[in-house]
Every structure is written in structure tokens, then in C-alpha cells.
């Protein structure tokens, strides 16, 4: 009976290790994606109302 419980303990330990490694990999990928989103937002910030109206004036005003 001790042999069976040792095998069970090894299987549980291996599965727990795989789960921890998977969780760490998921966290790393999540952080990399968050950093990429942050960098992209700073490179191409969303238009503000002032930017929108400035573009509208530029489209509709005759050239000088």
C-alpha cells in the first residue's frame, strides 16, 4: 500500500508543478501583452476633441 501512495504523491507533485509552470507562463505572456498595449497607446494616442475639430477645419477650409 505504501508503494501506491508514493506513486500517487509523485503524480500529484508533478501535476502541481506543471500547473505552477503554466500559471507563470500565462502571467509572463499577460504582462508582455500589457506592455505592448501600453507602448502602442503612447505611440498612437487617441484623438481628442481638439484634434478632431482641427482636422475638420483642415478638411473644409480652402488652402491659403
Could you write a compact summary of the structure shown?
It is built from two helices and no strands. With 64 residues, the protein is mainly α. It has one domain (2-60).
Name the features.
64 residues, mainly alpha
**Count of distinct structural domains:** 1
Which structural category do the helix and sheet elements fall into?
mainly alpha
**Percent in helix:** over 70%
The residue ranges in which pLDDT falls below 50 over 5 or more consecutive positions are none
Strand content: under 5%
Number of continuous helical runs: 2
Largest sheet: none
Order of helices and strands: HH
Output mean pLDDT. Answer: 87
What is the β-strand count? Answer: 0
Measure the end-to-end span.
93 Å
Q: What's the assembly state of these chains?
A: single chain
Description of the structure:
By secondary structure, the chain is mainly α. The protein has one domain. It contains two helices and no strands. It has helices spanning 2-43, 49-60. The mean pLDDT is 87.
Task: Tell me the layout of helices and strands.
Layout: H1 2-43, H2 49-60
